[in-house]
């Protein structure tokens, strides 16, 4: 059974009170945190559902649970911490962990909770998502009872397969494509009979009867609607467009809305993975090494912390990169290694010894935590010196040797590869270009090509799933081998043709 904070074992309760005090003295600010102790089986069940104990039934959660539990059993992966962005914050501790691990998790969670509350990219998120998820589960269960599990599950599969086709930045700005306007027909636009020179006002309705004017206005409005581009601007939130215009039953519309709401809830976590994990690691390492860890616990903490921030061949460790870059920022602003004088200094010896003793490091990292996501974080603070010091480079897999090999150590190439992998989560930009293509009710999508061709198997599956919702032929304009192509799925077969 989960335990509330009041029911935590005495040693954990005392540890949390100590860590909480140190965190707040450093300036961390967060909603109340409720810790729950779970056995490993329950913890992995909750982890499979994104940290929420109640979600709608779906095979995807079972598949993720199976993968997680196998990783635990075979020692391939262990979940040390899990925390969800709500008010109050809910965090989970694994039953049976060493006390030093529980302390580390608590300090780490304090960093996450502070980030959730104060980072601007989390500002629009639903802090009552625990209740919302439970409501979603209840609504979908009613649809299952009414329409059958297989029918509902198949439609959920369709929605989940395109859940990434949202506009990740729409909560923060007003998109013109999200605004709709109706054509306006002015009286001057309507062709009417000209009156005679001796026309009198009482003759007006006889010359141009009101019914005639109404019919003319409706006719002109209909013509304008046909000529009007729909949507008026390309729309990146494909799910919203489908919700507004696809011929969905009420229950289908509600499920699509649920999938979209949950996608937007999780989006900021994907946008801030590096800086968020870096921030939590920054604080757990500082609190543990300077305050919370006992002398007898330091070696175990160092061993486990090293595992958390270790470099992994072939993939990026967000804990490591985020932590190292935040420490670098703190050091630079403490020593004054920024600004015009620093940038213009060409003396490498002077740069190595540069220390203005400004002491602005902590102030700066709190500012970074407030305003940045992963892309802006790396774009602004990744430096050539940091890349050299931390041995960053670009690499690719050699199929002949079956090994990852260094390709480039150039700072520009390193930064470009990092940013391109993070932009739109490394996924292609797809827009709704026309909802009435060729005046036949077909959907016309456009892929904004940025140097990487679409994977054709993914593209075909995407067209198929969108067609399931739109019910009319779906077209996707893209670029393949430097030539414009139009991919089409009409419900029965795919076609591809070159366009100019």
TrEMBL record:
Residues 11-426 form the SpoVR protein-like N-terminal domain. Transmembrane segments: none annotated. It comes from the Bacteria. Residues 428-479 form the SpoVR-like C-terminal domain. This is SpoVR family protein. The lineage of its organism: Bacteria, Bacillati, Chloroflexota, Chloroflexia, Herpetosiphonales.
């Amino acid at each position: 059974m989960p335990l509330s904070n009041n029911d935590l074992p005495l040693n954990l309760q005392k540890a949390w009170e100590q860590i909480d005090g140190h965190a707040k003295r450093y300036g961390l600010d967060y909603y109340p945190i409720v810790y729950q102790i779970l056995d490993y089986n329950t913890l992995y069940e909750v982890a499979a559902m994104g940290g929420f104990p109640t979600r709608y039934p779906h095979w995807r959660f079972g598949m993720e649970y199976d993968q997680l539990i196998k990783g635990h059993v075979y020692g391939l992966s262990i979940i040390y911490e899990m925390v969800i962005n709500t008010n109050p914050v809910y965090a989970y501790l694994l039953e049976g962990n060493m006390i030093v691990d529980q302390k580390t998790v608590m300090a780490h969670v304090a960093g996450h909770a502070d980030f959730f509350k104060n980072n601007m990219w989390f500002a629009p998120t639903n802090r009552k998502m625990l209740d919302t998820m439970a409501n979603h589960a209840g609504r979908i269960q009613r649809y299952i009872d009414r329409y059958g599990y297989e029918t509902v599950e198949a439609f959920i599969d369709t929605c989940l397969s395109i859940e990434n086709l949202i506009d990740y930045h729409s909560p923060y700005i007003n998109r013109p494509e999200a605004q709709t306007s109706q054509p306006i027909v002015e009286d001057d636009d309507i062709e009417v009979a000209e009156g005679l020179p001796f026309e009198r006002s009482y003759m007006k309705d006889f010359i141009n009867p009101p019914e005639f004017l109404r019919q003319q206005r409706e006719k002109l409005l209909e013509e304008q609607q046909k000529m009007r581009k729909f949507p008026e601007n390309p729309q990146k939130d494909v799910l919203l467009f489908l919700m507004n215009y696809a011929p969905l039953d009420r229950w289908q519309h509600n499920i699509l809305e649920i999938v979209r709401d949950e996608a937007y809830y999780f989006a900021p976590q994907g946008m801030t993975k590096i800086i968020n994990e870096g921030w939590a690691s920054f604080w757990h390492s500082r609190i543990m090494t300077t305050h919370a860890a006992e002398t007898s616990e330091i070696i175990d903490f160092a061993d486990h912390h090293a595992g958390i921030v270790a470099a992994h061949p072939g993939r990026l460790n967000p804990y490591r990169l985020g932590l190292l870059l935040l420490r670098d920022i703190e050091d630079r602003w403490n020593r004054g290694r920024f600004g015009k004088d620093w940038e213009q200094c060409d003396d490498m010896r002077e740069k190595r010894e540069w220390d203005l003793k400004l002491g602005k490091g902590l102030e700066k990292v709190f500012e970074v935590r407030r305003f940045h996501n992963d892309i802006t974080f790396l774009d602004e603070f990744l430096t050539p010196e940091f890349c050299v010091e931390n041995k960053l480079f670009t690499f690719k897999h050699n199929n002949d040797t079956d090994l990852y090999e260094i390709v480039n150590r150039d700072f520009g190439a390193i930064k470009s590869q990092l940013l391109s992998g993070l932009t739109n989560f490394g996924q292609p930009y797809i827009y709704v270009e026309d909802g009435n293509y060729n005046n036949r009710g077909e959907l016309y999508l456009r892929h904004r090509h940025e140097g990487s061709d679409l994977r054709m198997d993914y593209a075909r599956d995407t067209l198929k799933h969108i067609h399931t919702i739109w019910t009319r032929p779906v077209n996707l304009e893209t670029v393949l081998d430097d030539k414009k192509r139009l991919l089409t799925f009409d419900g029965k077969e795919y076609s591809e043709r070159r366009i100019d």
